[in-house]
Amino acid sequence: MLMRVDLAALGSSELYDESRYSDQGMHAVWREMRARGGLHRQVTTDGQEFFAAVRHADVREVLGNHTAFSSAYSTMLSVRGDGDAAAGAAIHLTDPPVHSELKRIFTPLMTVPATQRLAQGIEGRMRELFDTIRGRESFDFCAEMVTLPMTITGALMGIPSSEWPVTGRATVRAMGGTDAAESDRQRRVGLFEAHTTIMTVLGEVLEDPPAGDSVIGRCPRTAEVLNDPDRDVALLNAYAFLMGANPTVPQTINQMLILLAGDDDLWSWFTRQERTDQKFVDEALRWASPVNHVLRRTTAELTLDGTEIAAGSLVTAWLASANRDEEVFPQPFRFVPDRSPNQHTAFGFGVHRCIGQHVAVAGMKTFFDLWRESVRSVSLAGEPRHLVSNFLNGVVSLPLSVNWR
């Protein structure tokens, strides 16, 4: 049950304060904001103003109108000032027509037919990972399955399997803090170390790039699109793809395991299915909403949902809020495994809708099929621990008790 929240008492920085996200209490805040309507004026802890779109229709407008809401600045509230160092160079930080040119380089690797060819390798690698925990009655799922996202995207990215554990840990750490008790300085140091680790791994791979049928193998072609000799465009795009690929799948799975472990009726329904279908995956994505928000900057003065916004303003689209919008989803706080239609925004919307969505869905279907095949029952062995981040809805520790088949 959601508690009613007094937004006036919270002040104007309730959506930015990352400490609030470690206890998963934000849905009550978003619900109150949706009820009030309009966009909401917010401020970061260092005084930067931004607007928050929390209703489904407003989120789709912000994400779908790339001419009015530009991506060529930053996609995360934590990166402001002069904007992201990769702004205008990395695929997710560009607008059409440049974005379209960059996208064409990578799209052939992630079409439905290309994903079908990848599926067999994904299943084989995931089975091998399952074998490392099979038979163990209790374990921390996050710790033991740190390479799970790389079983899906590692080969496609072109990253050697020997680097999968370090990149798996670093990508989660790079999204936020892993301990709510960390000081600001500790968190900044941790984030710096994580980003440095990722850049080092990707830089080494790019020195001897893999074949052109991998993402990193194609990244050097991005430098041909952008005349930008002052930045390593290939490295920036490799980084963008890795950071985009790793969070969505494992965090959706983590959130679903928490739900399955605590809902006997849902577990019973889940185990009766022969295969995991698209409806279940879509509802898992809606429910988990692994990315809380994305950031845009306005290119001109405009009005959205009755709110006047000046040119150059920062606007956040809260995907997690949109995915619980009562106007779009009947019983939004109930997991409905066969929900249809399901207009979730977990993959974004518009020209920046996730390029790797087919690969992500294939990976999740494979995981849930293997979990159903392998596990008789599952329960929580302790309290899950969440990432301290207003950007990623992440789980960093998930103690499970498992009864294997």
From TrEMBL:
Gene Ontology MF, one: iron ion binding
Record bears the keyword Disulfide bond: no
Entry keywords, A to Z: Heme, Iron, Metal-binding, Monooxygenase, Oxidoreductase
Transmembrane segments: none
Keyword Cell membrane attached: no
SUPFAM superfamilies: Cytochrome P450
Similarity comment: family membership: Belongs to the cytochrome P450 family.
Name assigned to this protein: Cytochrome
